[in-house]
Design goal:
The protein has 415 residues and is an alpha+beta fold. Helices cover 30% and strands 15% of the residues. It is elongated.
Length: 415
């Protein structure tokens, strides 16, 4: 056999074949054994380091996934290990990942928007964010479809209209006005179809917008309602990531109240964005400025139409706002005014675009009133006065003794 045939048979180059043949002739079969056999690799991890990683994974950082654990070890413990090394250590010790992987389904993914600010996906995630013994909270947040950036989020006791208005206000203040908003078909964004229309809605030919939809229409933000959770999968995947990583970050920071969680959330979201933010295809931003002359306090609020009573008082769900005489008219009795309930709990009354009365803050928790629409329901009709009520149909009517039917047609003659 020639040297070339031998090299081809062993899948070696001719040069390697010559080197092995010369070594075999000089040292015998021992020359064919690799020189590093039996030696300890240079990059072998110290057994004490392995034990420490396992102890930390079972103790302080219990429940963290492999990638998150490797990042926490580098930040907090000065242990620089790759995800694969952490995974290899834990699997060798019999520790499985807390994340369970489901069998993948075939889905066609929509391409990201090319420019930041073109589409925001918003949603609320209800979870025990502060641990199994903590309260159930809802994290209301938004994610940019183009970059995966989370511009703002906040914890609420429940998913409500005030939470979304606070979210939109902060997004506009920090980034600008987006072009479109993608959400589920919650009644916060659209009126319920089962509720009958009011007289005002019947005259308009459509249901009046909800408070959040009114803000979107004023800012010319297109609302897109998803018909399935998979349609807004980007924000759904965000909740899965945050329920895994943010949950652990809040636990390690010993946060136990809603106020503490909201105070720590900006710094945690900044770290999240630095880790997961992507570069948009178009570098310019599509966010717009708030229209000139529009105050955020007057845009992001609840609005209701009311009629001023005869004593110049506007009633707004248990709150009485006194309207003083102004330059436009001495008395506003019977005037149609707009009551604005601001996000800080204060109330203002406006007549023909001008503020005529204010009331200080009474509470920060607001709820949408009157079906959450911009208009109001008409007053119920007054009961019709009837001196002779119709008898109930469940019993027979007994005519009185002097009823004409009881009178005899023949008048008795006096004796």
């Amino acid at each position: 056999m020639t040297a070339g045939e031998a090299a081809e048979l062993m899948s070696l180059s001719p040069r390697q074949e010559r080197r092995l043949r010369h070594s075999f002739l000089r040292d015998g079969p021992a020359a064919l054994v690799h020189g590093n056999r039996g030696r300890k690799p240079v990059h072998t991890l110290d057994p004490g380091l392995r034990s420490r990683v396992i102890a930390l994974a079972d103790g302080v950082y219990a429940g963290c996934n492999d990638q998150h654990l490797s990042e926490l070890l580098a930040e907090r413990e000065a242990i620089a290990l790759s995800r694969s090394s952490v995974r290899r250590i834990l699997r060798a010790a019999g520790r499985r990942s807390p994340q369970r992987r489901r069998a993948p389904r075939h889905r066609s993914r929509r391409e990201r928007m090319p420019q930041a600010g073109m589409l925001l996906q918003v949603d609320g995630s209800r979870h025990q964010w502060l641990g199994p013994d903590g309260p159930w909270l809802t994290l209301v947040g938004a994610i940019d479809d183009a970059t995966g950036d989370v511009p703002y989020a906040l914890f609420r006791e429940q998913e409500d209209a005030q939470g979304y208005l606070l979210l939109l206000r902060e997004v506009v203040r920090r980034r600008g006005v987006p072009l479109a908003l993608y959400s589920d078909r919650h009644k916060i964004f659209q009126s319920e179809a089962r509720v009958p229309l009011t007289l005002e809605e019947e005259l308009a030919g459509k249901p009046l917008p909800t408070q959040v939809r009114r803000v979107l229409d004023e800012l010319h933000i297109t609302w897109i309602g998803a018909r399935s959770p998979q349609a807004k999968g980007r924000v759904e995947r965000l909740w899965r990531t945050l329920q895994d990583r943010l949950y652990q970050e809040l636990r390690l920071a010993n946060i136990s109240t809603l106020e503490q969680a909201n105070a720590a959330l900006p710094a945690l979201l900044s770290r999240h964005n630095a880790r997961f933010r992507q570069t948009a295809a178009v570098p310019d931003s599509a966010y717009r400025r708030l229209p000139a002359g529009r105050r955020p306090a007057d845009v992001f609020c609840f609005r209701y139409w009311r009629t001023v009573s005869k004593d110049n008082v506007v009633s707004l769900e248990g709150r009485a706002i006194a309207v003083p005489p102004g330059p436009q008219r001495r008395s506003y009795a019977r005037a149609r005014v707009e009551g604005r309930e601001h996000l800080d709990g204060s109330v203002s009354v406006h007549y023909q675009g001008r503020c005529i009365a204010r009331q200080s803050t009474q509470g920060a928790d607001l709820r949408t009133k009157r079906r959450g629409t911009v208009g109001e329901k008409p007053a119920p009709p007054a009961p019709v006065s009837n001196n002779n009520p119709k008898p109930s149909s469940n019993g027979s009517l007994k005519p009185p003794a002097d009823h004409p039917w009881r009178r005899s047609l023949v008048t008795p003659q006096p004796a």
